[in-house]
């Protein structure tokens, strides 16, 4: 029990510690009054500094409350004066400790609903090939580093659209990052969550209509026309290269 408590304290320290190198001016501000009005101004300044934007007013208010709670903790810890370091706001200050741990301390797959068994892949018994590479057939667009869950899901959607329709058009990763509530933008997400969004949304915009920018933004999906959709998705059997090859070949 003691080791668990120590670990939790260490994780909280990792979450909040970086004042000396990250935002020294914000650390000084945190020592001031944590009244709602002052922290709200501080939050606006923090958003501008870190390029942080929220989908809507409700989400902004929720993040502000988390931000305020963290600022109050920072001020309390600094006021105690019993540490060899000083805490201050950083780019994680609008996350709860649980959200920080889920996003930055390893992969946390979305649990399957209880009692729901994974269905066999429809291509499990198909004729096995030695190899399959859709790049040689033009069903691939080069991607680049970034929010891997969104880029992976978009690449798969682009590929299947090319295979089914003959058209290869770049789709919008940014729509997934801005509009999908199941992910944390470039702080983490899953391909399953991205596919579920595309299915429920009924479409995914083109990259030209909804271009990528390396920062979180507000959802503008209503302002762009749809370009592609999928009717569903399947999870291939884990740790099976043969199952993966059968799925890719089809």
From TrEMBL:
Gene3D superfamilies: 1.10.287.2250, Cysteine proteinases. Residues 43-100 form the Cathepsin propeptide inhibitor domain. CDD domains: Peptidase_C1A (cd02248). Residues 128-250 form the Peptidase C1A papain C-terminal domain. Keywords: Disulfide bond, Hydrolase, Protease, Signal. Residues 1-26 form the signal peptide. One of its GO terms (molecular function) is cysteine-type peptidase activity. Belongs to the peptidase C1 family. PANTHER family: CYSTEINE PROTEASE FAMILY C1-RELATED (PTHR12411). This is Senescence-specific cysteine protease SAG39. It comes from Ananas comosus. The lineage of its organism: Eukaryota, Viridiplantae, Streptophyta, Embryophyta, Tracheophyta.
